[in-house]
Amino acid sequence: MTALLAIGTRKGLFLARSSDGGSFEVEPVRFSSIGIHSVAIDTRGSTPRLLAGIEYGHFGPSVMWSDDLGETWEEATTPPVAFPERTATALARVWQLQPSPSEPDVVWAGAEPAALFRSEDRGATYTMVDGLWDHPTRPQWQPGGGGLCLHTVIPHPSDPRRIGVAASAVGFFRSDDAGATWRPSNKNIRAPFLPEGAQYPEFGQCVHKVAQHPATPERLYLQHHFGVYRSDDFGDSWTDIGSGLPSDFGFPITVDLDDPDRLFVLPLHGDVDRTPLGYRYQVFRSDDAGGTWHGHSAGLPEGPVHASVLRDAMSAGPAGVFFGTRDGEVYGSADAGETWSLIARHLPDVLCVRAAVL
Q1: Residue 34 DSSP one-character state
Q2: Which among 267, 276, 271, 272 is positioned nearest to 246, based on CA atoms?
Q3: Does pTM surpass 0.90?
Q4: DSSP characters over 244-295
């Protein structure tokens, strides 16, 4: 068994491999000095495919893929993700790459400014989903601190007609007709910065990340700017599950693939300086779908640490739980967060982390 860890940073892509449960070995950088804002490991089919949303700087953003585990990379001859001329919009970044669990060759891409793109050739070329771009609420969408970015794509694992997306600071939207139409799905998510009586808007919530377990597709977990929430009806309504946390502000949220009731967050100091709570990394785990929480830090530095963890820089899967920091360290746990070990250090600013077993 080989575990592959893909680490996207401000200056390049790093791959780390582990064989038969051994230590991860970090390989030399790919795309040196190029920002990697999104990465996916597509294990569908007989040949794994790596996908990377890159930012060439002067040459702009693009998506590249590799079918030999990162040895060589390819790019479509025309811009793979591009806004139609009618939008009068240019692509800023690709923030999310998400293979569909229910359609063999489909890959979804979330872009900035907030838009959804669909690929039917395993991520080589993409077409914009018009229904979301043309949503009547779009003129009122406002960017969050990280821009107007569509950062989360949640395809239903068995019904390709159903898909959810989250954008900052727009909220969660869902479609039940393969993206033709969309509706805001933010009921009970509080926006305390709004006046009294208007703190539960239809849209405009600052959603940081949404996670799902394929065994319980109706249940979603959401890290908000002002709380942590769970939905048991694919976003139709939400329940606050953050009361047991020492801080309900954070960016990432992820679910253990071995247990749909087990999820992980990394609380931060909110809008003060967005550093780890108590100036040390603590991953909080719930084993009862957010009913109770317990912090775990064995093996993590005692501190003080001042580097944050971004929304896509935490991942859970068959290979374990992993997170990367803005000061270039990557940690992993093989026991559901009970203990942690250092995988890499002195990397550039970590933007995204994905893991898979090959």
Answers
A1: S
A2: 267
A3: yes
A4: TSS----S-EEE-TT-TT-EEE--B-HHHH-PBGGGS--EEEESSTTS--EE
Element (H, E) at 134: none
Angle ∠(111,115,120) on CA atoms, nearest 5: 80
Pairing of strands 35-42, 25-26: unpaired
- What is the side-by-side strand order in the sheet with 253-255? 253-255, 263-265, 283-286, 294-296
Right CATH for 2-357 from 2.60.40.3760, 2.130.10.10, 3.40.50.2000, 1.10.760.10:
2.130.10.10
Q: Tens digit of pLDDT for each residue in 201-253?
A: 999 999 999 999 999 999 999 999 999 999 999 999 999 999 999 999 999 99
- What's at 15, amino acid-wise? L
pLDDT tens for 92-143 read 999 999 999 999 999 999 999 999 999 999 999 999 999 999 999 999 999 9
Please check whether residue 357 is in contact with residue 3, taking contact to mean a CB–CB distance below 8 angstroms. Answer: yes
pLDDT (tens digit per residue) in 36-56: 999 999 999 889 999 999 998
Distance CA 123, CA 67 (A): 12
Q: Where are the chain's structural domains? A: 2-357
